[in-house]
Structures are given as C-alpha cells and as structure tokens.
Design brief:
Number of domains: 1
Low-confidence stretches: none
Structural class: mainly alpha
Order of helices and strands: HHHHH
Mean pLDDT: 85
Number of strands: 0
Number of helices: 5
Shape: elongated
Helix content: over 70%
Radius of gyration: 19 Å
C-alpha cells in the first residue's frame, strides 16, 4: 500500500470517527432528557424523604447527575425554544442555556 493510499484510509477512518462524535454529542441531550423524565417519575413514586436513599441504591450516576438530567427534562421546552435546531444541541450547551438568567 502506498503512502497516499495509507493516508486515504486514515482520512476515511478519521472522518468516520468524527461523524460518530457528532452523533454522540447530538444524542446525549435526548438521552439526558429521557433519563430525566424517568427519574422524575421515579421520584414521584418514592415516599417523601426517601429520594436520596433510593437514588443511591438504584442509580449508577451521582445525585448531581440525576439533578442535571431532571433539570434538562423539566426545562426541555425552554431548550427547544432557544435553538433553531435542538437536535444539534449538546448537553453542555443546554446546561449553559439554562444557567443564563432570564431578562427582566
């Protein structure tokens, strides 16, 4: 295989990995919103005062991660309203949008 052919193969692999990164970034928010919805449903079913214990026993993420997921779920309509194309919004970008104070 010539050096040019090797570079062509590398370029192809590089671009495939790049596309996979883009897919992962754009689907992360959708997964976070769905996880948040499920966490909200679970919290509604847990007796008052037992949420932290239930979460520690049943959720593989941290309490902070659970709160993040629930927050993006609760504010999902606001996130959609803030974006021309919400499908390309990353979880990090969504959290930045939610941290911006509302205008007076």
């Amino acid at each position: 295989m010539s050096e040019i052919e090797k570079l062509d193969v590398l370029a192809s692999r590089i671009n495939e990995e790049h596309r996979q990164v883009e897919v992962a970034v754009t689907t992360a928010l959708s997964h976070a919103i769905r996880t948040g919805r499920l966490l909200v449903r679970a919290k509604e079913g847990v007796p008052h005062g037992s949420w932290s214990a239930w979460l520690a026993e049943n959720f593989e993420g941290s309490d902070r991660t659970a709160r993040t997921y629930m927050r993006v779920y609760t504010h999902r309509e606001e996130l959609v309203d803030n974006q021309q194309n919400p499908a390309t919004l990353s979880l990090d970008a969504a959290l930045r949008i939610l941290s911006i104070p509302d205008a007076p």
